[in-house]
Amino acid sequence: MKKLLLILLCLPMIFSSCSKEDDETIQPNNTSALSIDVNLVGYWLNTDTGEDSFIFGSNGEFYWDTGYHKWGSYWTESGYIVLEGLSTSWQSGIVNYFGVLGYNIEGDELTISSNIYLKQ
């Protein structure tokens, strides 16, 4: 009985002494790489298909509908859009997604990998 009491008294101390501290905030090493081209912000529709579309938010979030849906965060660097998030897949359900796409903006026209999108 004494052993059981001792175990019951020590058990909470074991778990509380191993608690993880969540007070620290991790900052990225290169914050300049996390910039957003303000010209990208908005809704863009593919001129060829009329179905393929991008939404880029000013908060660094994106949504891309190509029949398969992709969403997550983005940033721009040296003429490239870096996309990181999740994607739907008919084979695997929801999977991680990472993509680096070259882009160019001229007025209300966005070109990504030879596809032309118009700002709506």
Summarize the structure.
The chain is mainly beta.
- Helical element count? 1
Shape type = globular
Number of strands: 8
User: What is the first-to-last residue Cα distance?
Assistant: 74 Å
What's the SSE pattern? HEEEEEEEE
Given as residue ranges, the uncertain stretches (5+ residues, pLDDT < 50) are: 17-33
Radius of gyration: 23 Å
Main sheet: strand order: 1-2-3-4-5-6-7-8
What share of the residues lie within helices?
10-25%
Strand content: over 45%
Per CATH, which architecture?
Answer: Beta Barrel
The main pleated sheet reads as:
8 strands, antiparallel, barrel
CATH class category label: Mainly Beta
Helix vs. strand class: mainly beta
Compute the number of structural domains. Answer: 1
The CATH topology label is Lipocalin
Mean pLDDT: 79
